[in-house]
Amino acid sequence: MRVVFLLLALLGAPSASLAESNFTRINPPGPYAVGLRIVEQYDYARGYRGTTDTLTGKPVAGERARPIQTLVWYPATNSSGRGTTVSDYVKLGATADDFGPAPAERAGLEDNFVRTRVATLSSERAKAELAAPMLARRDAGAASGKFPVVIYAPSFNAEAYENADLCEYLASQGYVVIASPSFGHASRGMTTDLEGVETQVGDIEFLIGYAHGLPQADTSRLAVAGYSWGGLANVMAAAKDSRIDALVALDGSVRYWPETIKQSLFLTPARVTAPMLYVAARPKPIEEVSSDLNSDSSFLNKMKYADLYRVTMAPYVHADFSVMFSQRLAADGEHGDYDKDELSVANSWVETYVRRFLDAYLKGDATGRAFLDTPAAKNGAPRHLLTLDVTKAQGAPPTRAAFAAELNRVGFDKALATYQAFRERDADFAIDEPGLNRWGYQLLGGGDTRAAVAILKLNQELHTDSWNAFDSLGEAYAAHGDKALAIAAYRQSLVLNPKNTNGVAQLKALGAAP
């Protein structure tokens, strides 16, 4: 009872205290007030809980769809809504995946959850941190207008509000920012495997869909930011969805999990064309780096087709990118070689680069683009604090879509030469035999027999030992009215496969002997 009484005293205490918060907000907010909306909703397209509780063994009651606790920060009017504190955010973790408890039960769960989060702090520090005011006002009136959307993907197993300060700052600068927790496929426990990261990709996709229903959201201008594990999920989401216009990775795991990237198959440099801001912690000594992490395995080094800005923060270790938990609620003495004030200054530069990057790529702001292309010291950043490396995109990626666009430009009759040119640009570019065959038949079905012949001829030229490639080419020639060429193709198909009954039948239909 004494612990609960102490916690209630902390939660109800005024902001004044003997201790000061570990964190100082350096950057002033932007021109907008900040609203915060908490939405408890479900993704009914995905399951979450099984039929049996894995802890108690009891049957699961209630909703089993995937719960998505959704936090929305948005540009707001100045004088409406209820103010928030750090405590208001932290208590959200108590029911992040269980929306069922009644108010009295929920209050108890929230008190216990907050207590665990400040257990390493002195009572004075806990009081100061929990009472620290935030920018957001709950359910404030929305500012008029349409604003770019930023989906925030938290780190491994983290709460949606882990970087509430950054999300608030972006909302004050004219962005709608949306986040949900990082939970696993079937429980709060995230897993360090492909299933885990794809689960978070699914959450990002759900939030993009949700954003389409928000009156303020301009989803034609869309970015996904992610920290750590979320900084792998957001890149994977961009590889699947070309509507994502920009990526922010706060020491993202796209750098640290090369084997998971290999397993994903579709996460390739050619499919990531959205510009990326990668804000990194200071490099580890080589003795501390995993053996599978090197320049050859680095996905960042393979990103040829997107602008890439790499900002390395000298004061930051990996955990420091979670301002809520590793700066505001960090135990005393956990800041290593840098004190809390230096970390606050460093965070102000993280915010600045994220905002300038998003302004450049979502708002088309020339000032933001110039800022990114200027050496950090010339932008006023302390030389000891951060470094900036910029790599520009090397043209359009060699993808199936780009290949089709080039054929449309130069002519489908140049398919082989164009294919070879794409292969010279990127040896990983390839369209397999079934893929080319399907493409050819789709063109045939659309009535474009000339293009169909070109694609199926390319397939035959790349697979000279395939009887089916010759058989399909014969059909395309026949549809285009090239009877002699159709006969020749069908006959070659029979040379490679004498049992090709379709080839025999088609030759007879053309009035030719097999």
Report on this model:
This protein has 514 residues and is α/β, with parallel strands linked by helices. It has 2 domains: 32-83 and 135-391, Rossmann fold; 400-509, Tetratricopeptide repeat domain (Serine Threonine Protein Phosphatase 5, Tetratricopeptide repeat, Alpha Horseshoe), CATH 1.25.40.10. The chain is built from 19 helices and 11 strands. It has an 11-stranded mixed β-sheet, sandwiched between helices. Strand 9, helix 9 and strand 10 (308-313) form a beta-alpha-beta unit. The radius of gyration is 28 Å and the shape is elongated. It starts with a helix and ends in a 5-residue tail after the last helix.
Overall tally of structural domains: 2
Shape: elongated
- What is the CATH topology classification name of the largest domain? Rossmann fold
Kindly report the name of the CATH homologous superfamily of the largest domain: Alpha/Beta hydrolase fold, catalytic domain
User: How would a textbook summarize the main sheet?
Assistant: 11 strands, mixed
SS-derived structural category: alpha/beta
Kindly provide the radius of gyration, computed on alpha-carbon positions and rounded to a whole number of angstroms: 28 Å
Low-confidence stretches: 1-18
Give the beta-strand count: 11
Question: Can you write the helix and strand succession as a string?
Answer: HEEEHHHEEHEHEHEHEHEHHHEHHHHHHH
How much is the average pLDDT? 92
The number of distinct helices, counting runs of at least 4 residues, comes to 19
How many angstroms does the end-to-end distance come to?
A: 93 Å
Relative helix content: 40-55%
Approximately how much beta-strand content do the residues carry?
15-25%
Give me the side-by-side strand order of the main sheet: 3-4-1-2-6-5-7-8-9-10-11
CATH class wording of the largest domain: Alpha Beta
CATH architecture of the largest domain: 3-Layer(aba) Sandwich
